[in-house]
Specification:
Two copies of one chain form a homodimer. By secondary structure, chain A is an alpha+beta fold. Chain A contains three helices and eight strands. The first copy, chain A, starts with 9 loop residues before the first strand and ends with a strand. At the A-B interface, strand 1, helix 1 and strand 5 of A face strand 1, helix 1 and strand 5 of B.
Chain lengths: 141, 141
């Protein structure tokens, strides 16, 4: 049975806000037993994202490159730690109106390019139990 | 090649602190396309844990049953949201001294029984980038 559009298929990744990227990369390389698989500057967001594979999911370290980035504001307000939870969906464009109908507050009204070959869209923590949720779908070649 | 003891194999689950458990269960049942797989009172911790399967991982909702529980204190301090990140290891008893040697601050010095048929041990956020990390291993039958 095909699940309805919008249904989460897996945890795609967990995003962590970090202050000292080099230290966090070294620590996760040790914990997760392998070097990062992706390191990407995300210019429009003013961040750098470093991704580690862990089983079928990923851990994403997020460091700020600008004092006005969302990650910089998060670090100022909450400190280092868990930043967002990213769910994999089959069709992100179809998922967004479904999530909105379910009561979610969309931050991105259309999918945009994220780090690590993903289409992504964020859901506001208000209406999702205080969790910044990211929906994502792998980008085809 | 066998990874060294302590190496994380997968994201086992992500723990979310919630105020209104019924609302959060309804919302996650819709998002994740299926009812919870486990609902367990964890008496010593003064909490109830509700687990959903999502791909090869789980989402764990944590609600407080006592005003002095760790989850109650978390909700008071930080509000609802992402609470901890649980990593699966092959042998938790072997992993703990390795993590300590790596600089982690152990909250549990020995594995204890967690919700959903797991041996668990928590690592202090101090020394793990502000993230409350849980190591866990499936309990055999």
């Amino acid at each position: 049975m095909t699940p309805p559009p919008g249904t989460v298929l897996a945890i795609d990744h967990v995003g962590l806000a970090v202050r000292d990227l080099d230290e966090a990369v070294a620590r996760h390389t040790r914990w997760l037993g392998a070097a990062p698989v992706v390191r990407e500057e995300v210019e429009p967001d003013g961040i750098v994202a470093v991704l580690f594979a862990v089983g079928s999911a990923r851990v994403e370290l997020l460091a700020s490159r600008r004092p006005d980035s969302a990650v910089a504001r998060f670090l100022e307000r909450r400190g280092e730690g868990l930043h967002h939870l990213a769910y994999r969906v089959a069709d992100i464009a179809a998922a967004l109106p479904v999530w909105e109908a379910w009561g979610a507050t969309l931050i991105d009204r259309a999918p945009r390019r994220g780090a690590g070959d993903r289409w992504v869209a964020f859901i506001h923590p208000k209406g999702s139990g205080g969790v910044l949720v990211e929906l994502c779908q792998e980008r085809g070649p």
